[in-house]
Amino acid sequence: MAAQINTPEENFSFQLEDYEVEHQGQAVIDMQVDLDLKEGIGEDNPFEYPDFTPIRDFITDFLVNYPNETDFWEILNKNLVTSLLTEPIPTPFGVEYNLDEVLDSITVDIDIESGSSGIDTPRSSMAVGTPEGEEVVLDETFSFELVDYEIEHQGQAVIDMQVDLDLKEGIGEDNPFEYPDFTPIRDFITDFLVNYPNETDFWEILNKNLAETLLTESIPTPFGVEYNLDEVLDAITIDIDVQPGSSGIDTPRSSKITQTVDRSEPLSDEPL
């Protein structure tokens, strides 16, 4: 009996590398676009597959003509993904693409190179858009890194740290200022590391305490407000890579922790 061959899952990706754009000042970005093609695409009509070049050109035109240069990258990315799934994309073939008809989802990952906008911190915005009827459901993440960061913990150490902020669903819909600027969060982390009280703690303990502190303590900013990350995040992930030679140990090692936020209402103890 012949085995049954199932319908394949199909994905097509393309990249813009070292792309110079004027946003928040001068910036250089690397962008990856992942097109999650709908099941069964092309079975009845091979021309259902979209050529990526008009999509690429739509994106570069979007970036060049983006109207608000001060928007956070997360807002730009959200607006880009929404536009890709809701606006017809012109082509030189005499037709227009409607990507919501041929995609299950689209993911745009924008890596902002260190030095962009005068900030020596690599960071990235990832937005996943899923068409549902006439709406686009978004899953948004913002990440940043500390690279070759020297710290006195368990002796002298050098670490690389990546912080992933999993933004709550619907963030910014009613108030774009809900998006937190990452720089006060980065500065809060470096202050935490410099002033950590117990130098002998395992890295796992330090990391757990850092994640908990980020979600339970108010983070000061130079804008006259404080951030409470538990109000705008679904989760935070911190990945600390301890470089070989740190603490006199020639073994690379890492600690990774994901701390989630539960916003469900507690059950009432009152009798019905």
Describe this structure in words.
- The chain is an alpha+beta fold and 272 residues long.
- Helices cover 20% and strands 37% of the residues.
- The protein is built from four helices and twelve strands, in the order ββααββββββααββββ.
- The protein has helices at 52-64, 73-86, 182-194, 203-216; strands spanning 11-22, 26-37, 89-90, 96-97, 103-112, 123-132, 135-152, 156-167, 219-220, 226-227, 233-242, 253-260.
- The strands form three sheets. An eight-stranded antiparallel beta sheet has the order 1-2-5-6-7-8-11-12, with helices on one face. A two-stranded antiparallel ribbon has the order 3-4.
- The longest helix has 14 residues, at 73-86.
- The radius of gyration is 22 Å and the shape is globular.
- The N and C termini lie far apart (60 Å).
Helix content: 10-25%
Largest sheet: 8 strands, antiparallel
The radius of gyration is: 22 Å
Q: How would you spell out the order of helices and strands?
A: EEHHEEEEEEHHEEEE
Architecture blueprint of SSEs:
Elements: E1 11-22, E2 26-37, H1 52-64, H2 73-86, E3 89-90, E4 96-97, E5 103-112, E6 123-132, E7 135-152, E8 156-167, H3 182-194, H4 203-216, E9 219-220, E10 226-227, E11 233-242, E12 253-260
Antiparallel strand pairs: 1-2, 2-5, 3-4, 5-6, 6-7, 7-8, 8-11, 9-10, 11-12
